[in-house]
Write a structure and sequence with these properties.
With 289 residues, this protein is an alpha+beta fold. The chain has seven helices and ten strands. The strands form three sheets. Strands 5-4-7-8-9 form a five-stranded antiparallel β-sheet, with no helix packed on it. It has a three-stranded antiparallel β-sheet with strand order 2-3-6, with no helix packed on it.
């Protein structure tokens, strides 16, 4: 086999035309034709470039070294196989889209089912595994109506495990002040009654269920605290009855504040989702139907 025949065979093995090989070598198509027709011999630099392109040594290209098989031309897949692969790809894309739509619809149906769940009156069931209220330092022994010390109440609530995915997001504090002693009223006449209660809303840390309430110049107010729980993902809320009751201890007839009593309630009244109510055991089995 001559050098020209070898160049022609190797060119075709790479699927190149004479013009394409000429562009790679920096020569014209006519020059390639003359090489392959053994009319001219490529210059040394062109021989080196051709050997690199064909993956041969210069000696193998010239035929003075052991020849290697020419690269086989790229095989094209049959048309039916190409169409089959294209059809499978399209089917997979359609299946993926339909799966996504079905999953979205199932999630929406699940959410709607949850939101439509009945709420039931939950009594004598412990909704919280932790209910703590700590007081700031305050020195008792003062006349309750002359209070000049601030009182801070620190609340902590943690729901039971059946409320998985629910967090305590806030507290509602109902603060009832005591009527001033009648002799302090204008004219020294008894008042008609206690002033109306006031309400304060406290935002809790959703991770810890902690919040704080400060009563400036504490004067023996009674505080009742409710809690609000919220479910992540659905936004459902549960409002409880009293979880803390804070009452002053007043000595009569001296009217001095001797202490402050805190009563936590792990099982407050509440309307909660039926599935959760059924999962929480009764704190006193005597109330079970």
């Amino acid at each position: 086999m001559t050098l020209g025949q070898r160049i022609q065979e190797l060119r075709k093995g790479l699927g190149l035309s004479q013009e394409e090989l000429g562009e790679k070598m920096g020569v014209s198509r006519q020059a390639i034709s003359k090489w392959e027709g053994d009319q001219t011999i490529p210059e040394l630099d062109k021989l080196i470039s051709l050997s690199k392109l064909f993956g041969l040594t210069v000696g193998q290209l010239l035929g003075v070294e052991q020849p290697v098989p020419a690269p086989a031309p790229p095989q094209r897949a049959p048309r039916w196989q190409t169409l089959l692969l294209a059809g499978i790809g399209a089917a997979l894309v359609i299946l993926s889209v339909l799966t996504g739509i079905l999953w979205s619809q199932l999630q929406e149906l699940k959410l709607q089912t949850v939101l439509n769940e009945d709420y039931v009156d939950c009594r004598n069931r412990e909704l919280f595994q932790t209910a703590e209220c700590t007081l700031s330092d305050i020195e008792p022994g003062f006349l309750w109506y002359e209070g000049d010390q601030d009182l801070t109440l620190n609340f902590t609530l943690r729901p039971v495990k059946q409320f998985k995915g629910w967090n305590v997001i806030g507290y509602t504090a109902v603060i009832q002040s005591r009527p001033a002693p009648w002799w302090l009223e204008p004219g020294g006449q008894p008042d008609d009654g206690a002033p109306p209660p006031r309400t304060e809303y406290l935002t809790a840390d959703p991770k810890t269920g902690k919040a704080a309430l400060t009563l400036p110049k504490y004067k023996g107010e009674t505080v009742r605290v409710h809690a609000t729980l919220q479910e992540k993902g659905t936004g459902r809320n549960v409002d409880t009855g009293d979880v803390f009751t804070i009452t002053p201890e007043i000595h009569f007839p001296s009217l001095t504040l001797t202490g402050i009593q805190v009563e936590p309630n792990l099982a407050p009244d509440a309307f909660i989702p039926k599935s959760i109510a059924l999962a929480i055991p009764l704190s006193d089995p005597r109330f079970e139907n």
